[in-house]
Structures are given as structure tokens and as C-alpha cells.
Amino acid sequence: MTIFGAASLLLLVSFAPPPDPAAPNPQLLYLPVGFEAPGEPVALTTPPPPPPPTPGQALRDGVLIVVSLSSQRLFVFRKGEPWASTPVSTGVPGKPTPVGSFPILQKQVWHRSTLYSDAPMPYMQRITWGGIALHAGHVTGRPASHGCIRLPAGFAKKLYAITDSTSVVVITRERLRSADDARERG
Predict the structure, then answer these.
(1) What is the pLDDT of residues 37-61, one digit of tens each?
(2) What are the Cα distances from residue 3, in Å, to 29, 54, 119?
(3) What are phi and psi of 12, to 5 degrees?
(4) Cα-atom radius of gyration of the chain, to the nearest Å?
């Protein structure tokens, strides 16, 4: 009977659905079979992650990336100083690049799109769970992507090396012509 109880518990854990990434992550603590403890299983929760930095915090203390959809240009600041700038290609009509402030959610040196025919996305830095990312790709200086921000390959590799989860990407429709314009927007 003890073996059956342990096997049932094992099956319960083995076939549990994956947790919802947006929900808190409760985990149940199960005591060994035969261990007598009063009450129900104890629910443990992990503390929520800290909120992402604001653009001002990233500008001051880390890496801030500002993308101008109108200019098709990206500006990078590292600890408040201009680091680099490059032309980009963003989303075409019908597949727009979202506007707003986004943290870097995930990074992979070599990634393939699960949405668009296994398309290569080298030096991928995900900014939305809906598939939008910064990555190396063909840059025309005009909108040409499915919503991602395409970067020249060499630039994508260098940018990948300096960003982390405290970096912030600000995407705006405003025309930005210089790092000073981008700093004010960020």
C-alpha cells in the first residue's frame, strides 16, 4: 500500500501541466509517505521577480536602447553615455513593431523563429512573449520584418554582449536624428 501511494504521488507530479508563466508559482510540499503531520500540504510560493528597470534607470545604470520607427534607427546608451547607433529594419504594415518600453526577456545566440518558417534569428534578444525581438538580419533601413527589429550582424553581436535583464528597449514613432534626441525620448 505504501508503494501504491508513492507511485500515485509520483504520477501526480509527473503529469502536472506546466505552470502559467504570468501567474505566481505556487509549489506544494508533499511529505514522505508514512510521515504524520497535522493539516494539509503546505503551499510555498516564490517571491515575484523584481520589476524591470525604468528607462531612466537603464539610462543611468545600465543599457538603454531607443528605436525610432520613423527614422528606422536604433541608439544605444551605456551608463548614460552614447555607445553606438545603427540603421534597422522594423515591422511592415500589418506586422508592426510595438511601441512602448520593454525589458530584455530572453537571449539566445542562435535562435529560429517558431512563427515564421523556422527563420534564423542570430543574437536574438526577446522583448515580448508574442515573438518580437532584436536580432541580426537583413537591414534595408526601411520596414521589412514581421515586427522584429533587425540589426546588422556585427552590431547585433556586439549589442548582445552588453545587454542583460536590466536593459530596457524603448520603441517610439517619433523621428530621432541624433543620440541627444534619443536620450531625451528615453
Answers:
(1) 566 666 677 788 788 899 999 999 9
(2) 19, 53, 49
(3) -60, -45
(4) 22
Average pLDDT value over all residues in the chain:
83
pTM: 0.73
Burial-class residue 69 by CB neighbours within 10 Å (0-12, 13-18, 19+): buried
Give 19's pLDDT tier (boundaries 50, 70, 90): low
Q: Are strands 73-78 and 81-87 parallel, antiparallel or unpaired?
A: antiparallel
Q: Note the pLDDT of residue 31.
A: 46
Does residue 94 or residue 20 have the better pLDDT? 94
| 34: Cβ contacts below 8 Å, ≥ 6 apart | 2
Q: Are 127 and 114 in contact (CB under 8 A)?
A: no
Residue 68 grid cell: 525610432
What is the rounded distance in angstroms from the CA atom of residue 63 to the CA atom of residue 158? Answer: 13
Question: CB-based burial of residue 166 (10 Å sphere; 0-12 exposed, 13-18 middle, 19+ buried)?
Answer: middle
DSSP codes of every residue in 20-53? PTTS--EEEEPPPTT---SSSPEEEEPPPPPPPP
Which set of grid coordinates corresponds to residue 10?
A: 509520483
